Amino acid sequence: MLRALPCALIALLTGSVSAAEITTIPDAAVKQAIALRDQALKDGQAYALLESLTTEVGPRLAGGVNDEKARNWAIAQFKQLGFDKVWSEPVTFPKWVRRSESASLVAPFPQPLAVTALGYSPATPKGGVTAPIVMFNSLDALKAAKRDDVKGKIVFVSARMKPHRDGHDYGIGSPIRSRGPAIAAELGAAAYVLRSAGTDSHRLPHTGVTQWKEGGPRIPAAAVSNPDADLIEAALRRGSVQLKLQLDCGIEGDYTGANVIGEITGSEKPDEVVIMGGHLDSWDLGTGAIDDGAGVSIGMAAGALIGHLPQAPRRSIRVVAFANEEAGLYGGKAYAAAHKQEVSKHVLGSESDFGSDRIWRLSASVKPESLPAIDKMMQVLAPLGVERGMGAGNGGPDLSPIHAEGMAALSLTNDGTRYFDYHHTADDTLDKVDPEQLAQNVAVYVSWAYMAAQADGDFGSAPGAFKQNGDDD
Ligand SMILES: [Zn+2]
């Protein structure tokens, strides 16, 4: 805001922007948004959806046995909630399967470890890999390693994430998981193990995807739980440590899933859409309640509240349950590829994919002339505890590709203090979701989405409009 508002003021003062170009929210829309907000706080719809998804479908590994079941669930829910258009758009990706996984220290003493394979990890040879561990404290230390120190060994990268409200330590943990194995493979490592990218102290390892270089070497890659990482470090302080890792997992051809989309058709500008949602896939260890059944449920419930108004919104409300976010934003990329010609018609978007604890911050990537409209939204959101963020928002993971094409976007930040205790573990289950906090999320989404649908003027969506924001998060 501090960066963008002066631009708006300068534009107004210098007369390069006329009052007619300023985006505003009509008073009646603000009043209706307040009513929707207050209704959402008392509405149990999102929780009922999330309970249904995590109970009746369960874990939703992309391309796995529940992929189609989850899509059928989303189609049925959209229809039942009164979305008048419901359709699917195909998304294709390499299908990765997890069969079994185990690890143990073999020297200086035998000790079984809690371990999980990373997505797109290949299997170990039959009988597993047994090798000495070489430890690094950061990705940079690994990058600087000599080939002779790594070759034939099991690389172990150990950096402990601390909890923060904005979850920024994931910026350390995530690259160690996603990029570390490829670096270790190029240095000739036999396998790769990381301290889980998580903030808990349970013997529950955190899975997640890893990325390989096209045509580059691939090695078995896994995460151990935080207490097991502590144990490995303690053993290393006593001398050399041998680890045995056994993974049975790998890629089984291609799979075609789909983004499932529900829409409430607008009354005046049906081809202009306000877009929200979450990703329908999850990791397989838990039931994907916080990541990201919550996001799908929040979008569906917020859309349904608008759909149940006696008067349809001026613009259409589109809710997307994205395919396969976890293994590499496949659904979000496919959506952007299919819709980039209509980027100007994507008036404003935001995906929920950071759990469902209270939303405390709104960051906007919009044109300066629409900041008065964002200020109006803030008047409705501030009583929910939402502050105005200083940075630009990219709209969340699955909407970041279409944002990069030029869609105006909001980023709504949840309180992420607890998020990385459960993220990508067997503990990502329904009991971690607080129904009241989930309802606060729906209240936030229904408020901004309705006001965006009713706004006089746009938020600056146009081809290439937000290129400078890149994929910052
Ligand atoms: Zn997610």
TrEMBL record:
Concerning SUPFAM superfamilies, the annotation shows: Zn-dependent exopeptidases
Signal peptide start and end residues: 1-19
Where does the Peptidase M28 domain lie?
A: 259-444
Write out the GO biological process terms: proteolysis
Q: Which GO terms describe its molecular function?
A: carboxypeptidase activity; metal ion binding; metallodipeptidase activity
The primary location reported for this protein is endoplasmic reticulum
Q: Which Gene3D superfamilies match?
A: 3.50.30.30, Zn peptidases (3.40.630.10)
Q: Where in the cell is it found?
A: Endoplasmic reticulum; Golgi apparatus; Lysosome; Secreted
Alphabetical keyword list: Carboxypeptidase, Endoplasmic reticulum, Glycoprotein, Golgi apparatus, Hydrolase, Lysosome, Metal-binding, Metalloprotease, Protease, Secreted, Signal, Zinc, Zymogen
Gene Ontology, cellular component aspect: extracellular region; lysosome
Q: What InterPro entries does UniProt report for this protein, alphabetically?
A: CPQ (IPR039866), Peptidase_M28 (IPR007484)
Kindly state the subunit structure of this protein: Homodimer. The monomeric form is inactive while the homodimer is active.
Q: What is this protein called?
A: Carboxypeptidase Q
